[in-house]
Amino acid sequence: MMTVQSNSREGTTVRTVLALAIAIAGIAYSSWLLEFLLDTGLNPTNSFLSELDARGQPYRELFSTADTLTGALLVAASLSALLLLRRRPLTNVGWGALLVFGGATIADAQLPIGCIPTLLQPCGSEPSGLFPQLHHVHALTSTIAVNAIFVAMIAFSWAAFRYGMLPILRVFGLAVLVIASLTTAWMLIADNLPGDYALGIAQRVQVGAMSIWLVFLGVAVYMTRSQSWASK
What we know:
Layout: H1 9-28, H2 60-84, H3 89-110, H4 137-162, H5 167-190, H6 199-223
């Protein structure tokens, strides 16, 4: 197995490229923030982010391209990390989960929900409500993506404590993981109660936390000497 040595120029270059790829992926995954600058016609309080790139939406290509870029960067970075960085069980799980997240995010972008029902544009047999995408194959890819990134967040946070590595994830990364977990619980509980409970806001906080965590992971990779991936 080829490994990157911490004192080599090649090792520094690999870590820098990996860090940039992961951080840029995190930034691209926050493209939904553009909805506050663009006239999407959606209310952030009671709409899901999947609706931004639903078929027929005016800025579908923009948001779809950003998600595809996110997924492609993470697939490439995860595969590179598994091949080039020294291996540890927990980090292997983390990179594997990020690989799945990247692939599922690409699928998310390529398999959008078909329609957003409105009074002026009914969707016929298309399901209505806050979660129309839950009746679509998009629901499967979204579920896989969310579960995969949570596995990655947990695995890397655990690795940060277990192996004494990735110090930024021990504090800031863990805090972001807690926020993402709380908003996920908010969504799961509120979805079974009458009313919408600002679920659109909850999802935006959840996805925003995931984006920030990816940026932290990129910074952690850049700041951590590669030999620490194998330290006891």
